[in-house]
## 1
Amino acid sequence: MAPTWEVRLSDPAIRSARFTTRALFALGALNAWYGQAAGDYGAVSTGLCFCVCAAGLFGEDLLQRGYRADRAVLAYVAAHPGATTRQVAQAIGTPERLAARNFDRLTDDGLLTVTTDGVPRVLRSYRLALADGELTETSGS
């Protein structure tokens, strides 16, 4: 049986990928501009393709950033049932407004349920939800 290899990107590699999209966009724009000035329409189309691909990669990075934040919120609530928005925001190091957006997205998707209603948004507490809508009970809570 052949060994399987798993590749994980480090934070510096991810940051460099974010820089790469901007660099690709700039190089594509320069290539398209130079091709237009020189009358080389092959270079123009190649440059425009670079720009479109870089914009797509940048959009995908923004989408994945939201998923990473949702995953961090979900993991914290799984470990700490009844956690409030303020507690989660402080624990994962994100602004309360962003944590509240993550909570809204996760409750809309049915992954979390609100356990305290009638309080300000930052003081609401949340728990994991089961598929049938019942609250989960964990030992020690």
Note: Residues 41-79 form the longest helix (39 residues).
## 2
Amino acid sequence: MAHEAGENLALVEVPALTWAVFPNDGPHPETMQQTTVRIYAEWLAEAPYELDGFRMLSFSDVRDDGTAYSEIWVPVHCKA
């Protein structure tokens, strides 16, 4: 099945991985930035997972009031 990207967009193939998903909601972009810092500084230090080498993905649904619902997707695998 062929896929096309819209103008000024590119298709990125995303491999099948295990993803840790971190939803967050609040002032944008501060809440998403703080969540990202906490993922790397706190969660990864304590979790039984490590990064799986593929880049992190994120999206935000920004509202008119400057807040947003966002998700940060981090590829991980169990620590050996």
Note: The chain has a mean pLDDT of 92.
## 3
Amino acid sequence: MPSPSTARPHRRVPRAAALAFAAVCAVLPTGGCAGSPAAHGARAQAGRAPSASIEEIAAAVGCTAQVDVQAEELREGGCQTGQVAYRMVTFAADEGLRSWLAEARAYGGTYLVGSRWVVTAPSADALAALQGRIGGALETGSAHDGHH
């Protein structure tokens, strides 16, 4: 029997708390208010890539993901290759993805968005390279005032 410190049971997390946690976790590695001012609010592609799991996204990145949050509404985790840290969030429903993006965009940054999944990285270039492997659309948030 695993010890309590190593067991990772499926747990129910209140939706608002899970969404807020995922938004903060995804934005921190991207540099908070970083992002290309010219691209704020722009989408590179109109289409969305098919739904994928965190493990499938990590395999496309070339790393093994560690899942940090496993809730009914979403899963959140990340991995690193070389100097680039990727954060991934998958959602049980499109509504969760839309809510998460609405909250996260206020912090700026760039997001690679697919069907019920989002990936963040410290640079738009890292996400553009990943986009060539898994698809999705590059989206940017708007930097908030007073934090540059």
Note: The helical segments are 15-27, 54-61, 94-104, 124-134.
